[in-house]
């Protein structure tokens, strides 16, 4: 059974700092990995999707990497802003299933 | 497309009552998923459909939970009778048939059972 772990559970940084969020998964037979953002009381917003054949994806200040063999992904946020404060969730799709398996998330606070 | 649409956004009901949550997936998507999010257990898959057919309902917690997808544009998740421990945010998501495609989530229904 796929298990997804995110470390740290919470992170607080000053505005302008670059930061890295970590995600690890136990079964490397994945189709893709998706990073989401969730604001308090809101739904999930997809940030980046990395296919199993890709090494990284970039969108603006966000860069996500994937090392399938080691079961790891990172989300890099450059020049963080208070508006980046949210919970970031990592999810993998793989095996015989079509559903996503989620990590428990990293709650990010960017201090002005 | 307006994205995945869920209704209601908030639902407060008394224990023992029937609750029905609704979802309209993105047009053309073949897969529909129901997830539940709680503080204790995070996001968990309840059930998913492929072309309106339930494929895996192993995540449905009890017989009190049931889900249907009568057509490609509508799905319901029903809880009968509801209990306070069912209080959670319920998300619906949809994706295309191709394995590597992105999943899109609705805004969720926050259910409170008192």
The biggest chain-chain interface is: A-B, 25 and 23 residues
Rg of chain A (CA only): 13 Å
**Helical coverage of chain B, percent range:** under 10%
| Class inferred from helices and paired strands of chain B | mainly beta
Strand content of chain A: over 45%
Can you write the helix and strand succession of chain B as a string? Answer: EEEEEEEEEEE
Q: Could you list the spans of chain A in which at least 5 consecutive residues all have pLDDT below 50?
A: none
Mean pLDDT of chain B: 93
Quickly count the helices of chain B.
0
Q: β content of chain B, as a range?
A: over 45%
User: In terms of quaternary structure, what is this?
Assistant: heterodimer
Q: How many DSSP E strands of chain B?
A: 11
Choose one word for the global shape of chain A: globular
- Given as residue ranges, the uncertain stretches of chain B (5+ residues, pLDDT < 50) are none
N-to-C SSE string of chain A, H for helix and E for strand: EEEEEEEEEEE
Mean of residue pLDDT values of chain A? 93
Radius of gyration of chain B: 13 Å
Per DSSP, the total helix count of chain A is 0
Could you give the topology of this structure?
The complex is a heterodimer of chains A (112) and B (114).
Chain A: E1 4-7, E2 10-14, E3 19-25, E4 30-38, E5 44-51, E6 56-59, E7 62-67, E8 72-77, E9 86-94, E10 100-102, E11 106-111
Parallel strand pairs in A: 2-11
Antiparallel strand pairs in A: 1-3, 3-8, 4-5, 4-9, 6-7, 7-8, 9-10, 9-11
Chain B: E1 5-7, E2 10-13, E3 19-24, E4 31-38, E5 42-50, E6 53-56, E7 65-71, E8 74-79, E9 88-95, E10 104-105, E11 109-113
Parallel strand pairs in B: 2-11
Antiparallel strand pairs in B: 1-3, 3-8, 4-5, 4-9, 5-6, 7-8, 9-10, 9-11
Describe this structure in words.
The complex is a heterodimer of chains A (112) and B (114). Chain A is an all-beta fold and 112 residues long. Chain A has strands at residues 4-7, 10-14, 19-25, 30-38, 44-51, 56-59, 62-67, 72-77, 86-94, 100-102, 106-111. In chain A, strands 2, 4, 5, 9, 10 and 11 form a 6-stranded mixed β-sheet that branches. In chain A, strands 1-3-8-7-6 form a 5-stranded antiparallel β-sheet, with no helix packed on it. In chain A, strand 7 and strand 8 (72-77) form a beta hairpin. Chain B contains no helices and 11 strands. Chain B has strands at residues 5-7, 10-13, 19-24, 31-38, 42-50, 53-56, 65-71, 74-79, 88-95, 104-105, 109-113. In chain B, the strands form 2 sheets. In chain B, strands 2, 4, 5, 6, 9, 10 and 11 form a 7-stranded mixed β-sheet that branches. Chain B has a 4-stranded antiparallel β-sheet with strand order 1-3-8-7, with no helix packed on it. In chain B, a hairpin with a 2-residue loop joins strand 7 and strand 8 (74-79). The N and C termini of chain B lie far apart (36 Å). At the A-B interface, strand 4, strand 5, strand 9 and strand 10 of A face strand 5, strand 9 and strand 10 of B.
